[in-house]
Write a structure and sequence with these properties.
Strand content: 5-15%
Number of strands: 4
Number of domains: 1
Largest sheet: 4 strands, antiparallel
Structural class: alpha+beta
Helix content: 25-40%
Distance between the termini: 89 Å
C-alpha cells in the first residue's frame, strides 16, 4: 500500500515563513514603484496642461491666459481649470496623484500657475527676456513638493512645453 505524499507541519511553516520574508522585503519596493508611477502621472498631466495652454495661445492671438491661483473652488476668478478646460466638467488632468494634501479638492488644481507671465504675448515675452529660450521660462509647477521620492523636487512645465523635475524654479531670468 502506498502512503499519501503530504507536507509536514515543519515544511509548511518554513514555506509560510519564506513567503512572509519575501513580502516584507518587497513591500517597500512596491511603495517606491507606486510613488514613481504617481510622479510620472503628474509629469504627464503637466504635459497635457501644456497642450491646453498651446491651444489657448493659438486661439488668442499668441497670448498666454490671465489666470489666478485660487485658495478654494468657490472663488469666482479665472483659474487654470476653468479657463484651460472650459467644459464645466472637472478634469482629472489638474489632479496630481501624489497630492496628499488634497489641494485639488480645495483649489481645483494640484498645480501652480506662474502669474508673472499672465497675458503675455509669447513672441514678445521671449524678446523681453533678452532672446532667452522658452525652455528657461517656467509656466506651471506642482503646488507643493508632493514627491518624496524626488527628494524635494517639483515637476515644472516650461513655456516651450517640456517638463522637468527641479529642486526649485525661479522667475529670475538673468544669466
Amino acid at each position: 500500500m502506498k502512503s499519501a505524499v503530504a507536507f509536514t507541519l515543519i515544511e509548511l511553516l518554513i514555506a509560510v515563513a519564506i513567503l512572509g520574508v519575501l513580502a516584507a522585503l518587497l513591500t517597500p519596493v512596491f511603495g517606491r514603484v507606486r510613488a514613481a508611477a504617481n510622479s510620472t502621472a503628474c509629469l504627464n498631466n503637466l504635459r497635457q496642461i501644456g497642450m491646453a495652454v498651446q491651444v489657448y495661445v493659438n486661439e488668442n492671438n499668441g497670448r498666454l491666459p490671465i489666470l489666478q491661483n485660487r485658495t478654494n473652488t468657490s472663488q469666482q476668478v479665472p483659474a487654470m481649470d476653468t479657463v484651460l478646460w472650459p467644459t464645466g466638467t472637472v478634469s482629472r488632468v489638474f489632479r496630481c496623484p501624489s497630492d496628499r494634501q488634497r489641494l485639488f479638492e480645495t483649489t481645483g488644481t494640484s498645480y501652480f500657475w506662474n502669474f508673472t507671465v499672465n497675458g503675455q504675448d509669447v513672441t514678445r515675452l521671449f524678446s523681453i527676456v533678452g532672446g532667452r529660450e522658452p525652455a528657461r521660462i517656467p509656466l506651471i509647477s506642482d503646488k507643493e513638493g508632493f514627491h518624496p521620492e524626488l527628494k524635494d523636487k517639483v515637476n515644472v512645465l516650461y513655456v516651450d512645453g517640456h517638463v522637468t523635475k527641479e529642486l526649485q524654479f525661479s522667475t529670475n531670468l538673468s544669466p
